[in-house]
Amino acid sequence: MTRYFSRRDFIKTTGIGTVGLALGGPAFIGKAFAQPAGRRTLRILQWSHFVPRYDRWFDPFVKRWGEEHNINVIINHISLSDLRSTFASEVVAGRGHDIVEFIDPPSDFEPSVLDLSDLNQEARHRFGQQVPFATRSSYNPDTKKYYGFCHGWTIDPGDYRKSLWQKVGKPDGPRTWEDLLVYAARIKQELGIQNGIGLSQELDSNMAGRALLWSFDTGTQDAREHVILDNRKTVEAVKYMANLYDRTLTPEVFGWTPASNNQLLIAGRASYILNSISAYRSAQKDVPEIAKDIYFSPALKGPGGSGWACEHVIYVSVIPKFAAANADIAKQFLLDLCANYDRAMWESELYASPAFFNTPLLSGDRGYPRVRGAKKMRDLFSHWFSDDPYALPGEARGKLLPLKDAESWATNVGHPGPANPAEGEIFGTYIIPNMFARVAQKQQRAEESVKQAAAECQRIFDKWRAKGLIGHRG
């Protein structure tokens, strides 16, 4: 039996009195939610999850939540590639969904969405401190506005085929970008299996390019939100990627979609990819022998010892301004989803991690085997990533251990600054993967491509700065 969050559950679990629990809290709901005027409708738009089991749990969860609160809830799933354009059309039309969930920071939509500072404040009151890069992915420090609410994130390690790396003398997989270049080249030359880093206008190529830049101690902006891309270290990173392409990749990477590296790994045609554990979970179901050979490594380190992974899958929900009349119930739903994040973790097969690790666990049957002594989300996270409950029979259960400290090497789009609207537009227009691809395809020299990308970034920053959504700090 599945139990869902209710006020009674939360009061029992946390000991917080009813004064602060008017289903959303008096900080942002004018009257008690329990007495709405008639039956209302809440519309939710989000992407079709990479782990299908999650949607099979989430949709009934949404329906049950609506029944318990006398709300008619409509949920629509669409392709990830259609999400931004669909929401942009709704903004122009001035009508559509009340909650829209993105998996990259939608900071460029800040002018069109509600400030969710009250919701974020209430979440911290109930669930404790948020993971810092989740805050940087939903808060604009220049406008002091929370344009979104981040309830979770997905760890992005390296996924590698252990048997292939063993054959070239690196059984624990790469730990540096130099390892990836040297050993992936040997695997391609000696074993005929390519590397799986993308150079296309898609999500994973965006993530890989940023991880490489940061690990070479450069990036698009600094902590004060000034464009810094045009520098010697960026040129070195671009030259590295061109070399990586020449020695380890194939031309197909220029036309990849977000599913391409997963498919290549599952088909046994990739030695390494930068992605979440979703490809591994798919392989467990479809090609168990490949799954047993997939292991994980933390963020690769660059020449100076830095190593960062770009959190491109970070769950940020927005409430558009045209949905202000339903903002109270939208906020309450998001709080209740956070309270049930143990189920989100479990039903996503550990793909989703909570943005609020100190959220207390609800009592009763939670739909998964009880973990002795677990009181908070972090307890479950630590236990499950130490001993993967979804490991296949006979498979090593400690494979996910390298992911336990992912908070220390995962960061947000815009690192070391926030995911501001300029960074959101740069991410959405694929300036970074285009910069790398031009050089890999020998269309430009590295220095020329970097200068072009830096100029494109500067124009975008200037535009958003003129709109007052990026400050003039330092």
Kindly describe this structure.
This protein is an alpha/beta fold. The protein has two domains: 7-154 and 312-386, D-Maltodextrin-Binding Protein, domain 2 (3-Layer(aba) Sandwich); 158-308 and 392-466, D-Maltodextrin-Binding Protein, domain 2. The protein is 41% helix and 12% strand. It contains 18 helices and 14 strands. The strands form four sheets. The chain has a six-stranded mixed beta sheet with strand order 2-1-3-12-6-13. Helix 4 runs parallel beside helix 13, helix 9 packs across helix 17 and helix 17 packs antiparallel against helix 18. The longest helix is centred in the last third of the chain and has 21 residues, at 446-466.
Features:
474 residues, alpha/beta, D-Maltodextrin-Binding Protein, domain 2, six-stranded mixed beta sheet, four-stranded mixed beta sheet, 18 helices, globular, disordered N terminus
Summed up:
With 474 residues, this protein is of the alpha/beta class.
pLDDT < 50 runs, ≥5 residues: 1-36
Helix content: 40-55%
Using the alpha-carbon principal axes, give the shape.
globular
Highest CATH level, the class of the largest domain: Alpha Beta
Gross CATH architecture of the largest domain = 3-Layer(aba) Sandwich
Strand content of the residues, in percent? 5-15%
Counting H and I runs of at least 4 residues, what is the number of helices? 18
Looking at CATH, the homologous superfamily of the largest domain is Periplasmic binding protein-like II
Instruction: Tell me the major beta sheet.
Output: 6 strands, mixed
Mean pLDDT rating: 91
Distance between the termini: 56 Å
The structural class is alpha/beta
Radius of gyration, rounded?
A: 22 Å
Q: What is the total tally of β strands?
A: 14
Q: What is the CATH fold-level name of the largest domain?
A: D-Maltodextrin-Binding Protein, domain 2
